[in-house]
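Priority: medium. Attachment 1 of 2:
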């Protein structure tokens, strides 16, 4: 794993300046899981297959006893990993053949190619070990295809009214072994009588709901299911939660008995192809388990279950359910949750244990040693242990901090931590952390050596800087300087603005956007300063700061950017005549706003950005975003929508603009890019639009990421450095 890069001769002992392709080809850890007992760590590593133009994820197993790692899956791409026991790991793995779907594979003894324990027609979306088998979420094939309707009426979508095809299944491992052995030995007729050991637990739901996530009880006797009314994100707050209490093995045995009896009856009647006599409406499904709807408050969800199964952790926004409002973590006794007659009673039985943490909680892990979470604090991420009494303890992890990734930290039952960590001097690595003394300080051991690939690269230096915005608000960001930075020299400056707006730029040597979207390293090596501002609305500075852009989108953001230019210019570091701005998603919107509402920028780049809030509101998949951030619907009052829209200043446009967008983007639909492009063309402003076929909101293929990086480097090298414009 992460073997050292081949040695490259260095001229005059100077470091290597990496190419854009070098950046795209870098390997990085993206997820970690520690085995029961804490002797092994599973690490998912993203790799680049340039030939096939795809990213692939390889699961590596690191043995802590012998200090060695090896790759587990030789084919396919690992999307999720779960330990069954100390020597058995399961992967949700995507193959690459025509029509291949993600399935669950079991690696017993951590060797071989893995045993396929699912063969679901539409592929598996999520899984978890449970009661001698696996729970898994997938789309119900018949409901997904809706063939009867298609045969009559063809294909169409009833917008925001389609029932969800999502379903929850359980498969028993020992039963599956027996079934597969019987299938191998059976004749064709005998095989027809066999029943696959899979049950659909979601048949217990009162209606066809979208299954958001599933939280199995560690006690193995219950499953908690969070749902939305439908899959469309307009139902984001229309949530439900259910507890299914079951004996999974007994339910499976009864299901198989019933199905065998049905098949025998049909065979005897000579009607083997007849439809099932009993529908879900008529059939007694109580053998599958007992389902109870929990009366959670609106938009709340169960996020963790205590190790003994007796308490639940609930994520709930106590103040309001706006998109910018942090949720708190609340505890409730499991029996009290069942007994609560309505949301008010449920809320009355909960107690808030994260009120002292005024930050966005990113991960939740509940083990015997406590509740662990991560959250941003400024430009770093912190690991915390939450006490059941509401006390939050910061965990001291030395010089590293977790990366911004919900799969970047895992905890053993006794409190050892495995994490993907980074800092301003080191790329993301996997670390093992042992608690010492009072349990707040950890002795940290590095397990991986991904940094070897970049140890001879010139990456510049990274540091946190702070300044005061126009309205007195303190803003901070991450500044990358050339290695030979001279404080007496004035440099060109480019902003790289993160998305969200509830995102954050962290003080790390290399981020994901540095490797796939914006060539910060290459700019630094050309003598350009790169500033990633945590503008108002970013997380990491508390709830009040996150709300500073409400009804102030673009306007306050621009104050933060322009004041950064002033602050760096006052230090004598920036040539104010050569400033650019780029960003993706909300960062693209801010870049477009800056290019059209400010005189401070020589050129901008808009990645998947909003051009007009009205256009955005009527075409995106989260229309509540604008309702929350702009205090209402544009059909009632469009004034604020217009004032905060980039295109509202189109008549005065003159800043050259590069636009990049995916054709299948539903979060910020392509209409935004087209509107901006047509408007700038009409104003005779230099503009280039690059559209990426098949790409949604993110760009997810290596060559296309390479193109995004190349276009941005060429654009700003031309407008800030005077180089020839070579976009292709």
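Attachment 2 of 2:
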């Amino acid at each position: 794993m992460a073997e050292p890069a081949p040695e490259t001769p260095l001229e005059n002992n100077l470091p290597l300046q990496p190419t854009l392709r070098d950046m795209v080809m870098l390997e990085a850890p993206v997820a970690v899981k520690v085995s029961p007992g804490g002797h092994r760590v599973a690490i998912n590593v993203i790799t680049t297959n340039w030939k096939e133009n795809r990213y692939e994820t390889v699961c590596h197993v690191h043995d802590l006893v012998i200090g060695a790692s090896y790759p587990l899956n030789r084919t396919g791409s690992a999307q999720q990993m779960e330990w069954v026991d100390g020597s058995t790991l399961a992967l949700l793995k995507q193959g690459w053949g025509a029509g291949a779907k993600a399935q669950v594979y079991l690696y017993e003894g951590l060797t071989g190619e893995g045993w396929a324990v699912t063969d679901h027609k539409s592929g598996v979306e999520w899984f978890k070990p449970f009661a001698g088998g696996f729970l898994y979420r997938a789309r119900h094939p018949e409901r997904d295809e809706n063939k009867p309707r298609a045969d009559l009426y063809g294909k169409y979508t009833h917008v925001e009214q389609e029932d969800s095809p999502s379903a929850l299944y359980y498969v028993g491992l020992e039963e599956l072994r027996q079934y597969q052995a019987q299938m191998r030995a059976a004749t064709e007729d005998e095989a027809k009588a066999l029943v696959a050991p899979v049950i659909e637990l979601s048949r217990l739901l009162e209606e066809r709901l979208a299954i958001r996530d599933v939280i199995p009880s560690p006690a193995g006797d219950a499953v908690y299911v969070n749902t939305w009314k439908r899959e469309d994100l307009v139902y984001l707050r229309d949530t439900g939660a259910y507890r299914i209490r079951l004996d999974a093995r007994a339910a499976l045995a009864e299901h198989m008995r019933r199905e065998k009896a049905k098949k025998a009856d049909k065979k005897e009647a000579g009607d083997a192809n007849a439809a099932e006599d009993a529908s879900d409406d008529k059939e007694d499904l109580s053998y599958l388990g007992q389902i109870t709807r929990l009366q959670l408050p609106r938009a709340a969800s169960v996020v963790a279950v205590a190790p003994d199964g007796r308490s639940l952790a609930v994520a709930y926004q106590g103040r309001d359910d706006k998109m910018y409002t942090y949720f708190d973590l609340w505890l409730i006794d499991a029996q009290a949750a069942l007994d609560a007659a309505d949301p008010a009673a449920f809320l009355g039985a909960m107690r808030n244990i994260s009120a002292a943490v005024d930050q966005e909680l990113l991960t939740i892990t509940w083990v015997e040693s406590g509740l662990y979470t991560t959250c941003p604090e400024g430009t770093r991420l912190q690991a915390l242990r939450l006490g059941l009494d509401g006390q939050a303890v910061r965990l001291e992890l030395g010089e590293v901090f977790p990366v911004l990734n919900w799969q970047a930290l895992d905890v053993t039952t006794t409190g050892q931590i495995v994490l993907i960590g980074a800092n301003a001097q080191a790329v993301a690595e996997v670390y093992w952390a042992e608690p010492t003394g009072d349990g707040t300080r950890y002795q940290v051991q590095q397990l991986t050596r991904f940094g070897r690939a970049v140890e001879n690269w010139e990456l510049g230096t990274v540091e946190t800087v702070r300044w005061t915005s126009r309205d007195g608000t303190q803003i901070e960001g991450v500044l990358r300087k050339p290695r030979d930075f001279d404080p007496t020299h004035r440099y060109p400056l480019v902003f790289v603005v993160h998305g969200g707006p509830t995102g954050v730029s962290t003080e790390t040597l290399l981020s994901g956007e540095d490797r796939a979207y914006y060539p910060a390293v290459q700019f630094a090596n050309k003598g350009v300063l790169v500033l990633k501002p945590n503008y108002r609305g970013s997380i990491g500075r508390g709830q009040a700061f996150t709300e500073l852009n409400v009804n102030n989108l673009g306007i306050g953001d621009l104050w933060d950017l322009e004041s950064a230019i002033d602050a760096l210019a006052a230090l004598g570091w920036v040539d104010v005549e050569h400033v650019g701005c780029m960003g993706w998603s909300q960062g693209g919107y801010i870049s477009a706003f800056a290019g059209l509402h400010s005189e401070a920028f020589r050129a901008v780049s808009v990645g998947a950005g909003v051009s007009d809030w009205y256009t955005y509101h009527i075409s995106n998949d989260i229309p509540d975003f604008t309702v929350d951030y702009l205090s209402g619907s544009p059909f009632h009052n469009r004034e604020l929508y217009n004032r905060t829209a980039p295109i509202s200043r189109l008549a005065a446009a003159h800043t050259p603009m590069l636009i990049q967008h995916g054709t299948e983007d539903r979060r910020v639909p392509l209409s935004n890019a087209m509107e901006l492009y047509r408007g700038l063309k009409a104003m005779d402003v230099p503009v280039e639009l690059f559209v990426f076929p098949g790409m949604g909101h993110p760009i997810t293929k290596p060559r296309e990421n390479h193109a995004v990086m190349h276009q941005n480097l060429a654009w700003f090298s031309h407008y800030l450095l005077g180089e020839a414009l070579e976009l292709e």
